[in-house]
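User: quick one
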Amino acid sequence: MSVIEDKQGEAATWDARLGAWVVDEAAACRAFLTHGSLSPPPYVELYGELEERFGLDFSNLRLAFGHIPLCLHGPQHANARKAIAGQLARRRSAVLSTMAERVALHFGCLGQPGQVELMAQAVEPFVADFMGALIAVADTGFDADSLISRIFSRGMGIAKRKRAEAEVAAPRARIEASGVSDQADVGQKLAMMILGRDALTGTLAYSLRDVLAAGQGMPFAALDWPDLPSSTGVPYIERMAHESAIVEGLTLAPGDRVRIMLRAFGETADPRERAQFFGAGAHTCLGRPIALEAWAAIGLYLRGLPTTVGALDCQARVDDIFAIPARLDLEVCP
Amino acid sequence: MTATLDRPAIRLLAIEALHRSIGLLNDPAYARLRDEPERVIVFADLELDSLSTLEVLMEIEEAVGIELDPELLPELETLDGLVGYIAANRADA
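Assistant: Done. Structure below.
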C-alpha cells in the first residue's frame, strides 16, 4: 500500500471504505486516465480466481469481460479495441440510416399532451432498439433491471455473481441463436451490449433531463440543444497501478486502486473538456461517435414537436456503477 | 439450509465460516470464540483479504439464503452487526 501523501483538496483523496484513491478534478482525471502505469482492474483474472478457488463456472462473464476493451490492457486491450471498432464500423451505416425512424418511434410519446415516464416509454426502449441494431441482434433479452449492469461492481458477493452469470447466459444464447457462431464475435457483441447499453442510457437520460429542466415552460421547438450531452451515465472509471508510479504528485504502489470521477469533466462549460467524460487516452469510448449521432437525432426530433415542456421530476436509480434515472416523469403540455 | 435460525445459531454459523476460510479458531486469541457469545469481533481486526471475504460470505449465503455483499463487512463493522443484518433480512425474505 502506498504512503498516504495527499489529503483532501490535493490531486486525489483516499477513501478508506472504497480502499481507493478518488480523483475528482478534470485536469487530474486526464492525467490519471492517460498514465501508462495504470491499468483497468483485472476482471478476467478475478473470475478465473473465483472459478479455481470455489469450483464455480463463470464462463459467460469471462467471455464478456474478455472482450470489453475497458477491462483489458496491453495487447489484449489493443486487439479487443480493434475488434469492437470493426463491429461499430460495419454497422454504422445501417444504424444511421434508420436512426430518425427509431427516434420517432420511441420519442413520439412527447408529441401529444399528457404524462410521460421517459425512462420506460422512451429512453430504455430506444436504447434497446438502438443497441440491437448496432449488434444486429434484434432482441438480446437484456432486462433493464438485470444484474448485468452491476458486473463491474467490486461489491458483489458470490451469490450475486452467480446470479449475474446466469443472467448473461440468456443474451449469449440469443446472440448465438441469431446465427453468430464465432465465439469471439459473440463475446464482442455481448461486450458492446453490456457496456454500451447502460452507459448510453444514463448519458442520454440525464442529459435529456438537463435540457428539459432548463426548458420547462418552453415549446420543444425552442429548446436549447447542446452538441454534446451534458451528463455522463458513467460517473467513474477505475484503474489499478500495475507498477510503482508517481501521478500528479501521488505515489502509487503496484495494486493501488484509483477511482477517476468522469463526472468532473461534465462540470465545465467548455465542450472540449466535457467531451472527455467519454474518456481520454487508450480507453476513450469507442461508442462516442455513434452516441453523439443518437444525441443529435433526438434533439432534432424533439425540436420538431408541437408540444411544450411541462413539469419534470427525476428519481435516481440506486446503482454503484452507472448513473441512470429510475424514473424521469414529464408533463407534456399543448 | 436450516429453515429457522436464531441469532446465536447465525453467529455460530459465521464463526465456523470464518474458521474454515482463515482458520480463525486456530488463533489463540479466538480459540474459545464459540463459547463467548458476548465477545465483540471487529472485522477489521481479522484482516480478511478480498477472496477470503467472498469465501466467508459465500458459506453464510448458502446457509442463510440471502445475498451478502463484501461491502457489508466494513459497514457493519462487527460479527454481531452482521448477525443482526442477517436476522433482519431473513425475517423480511
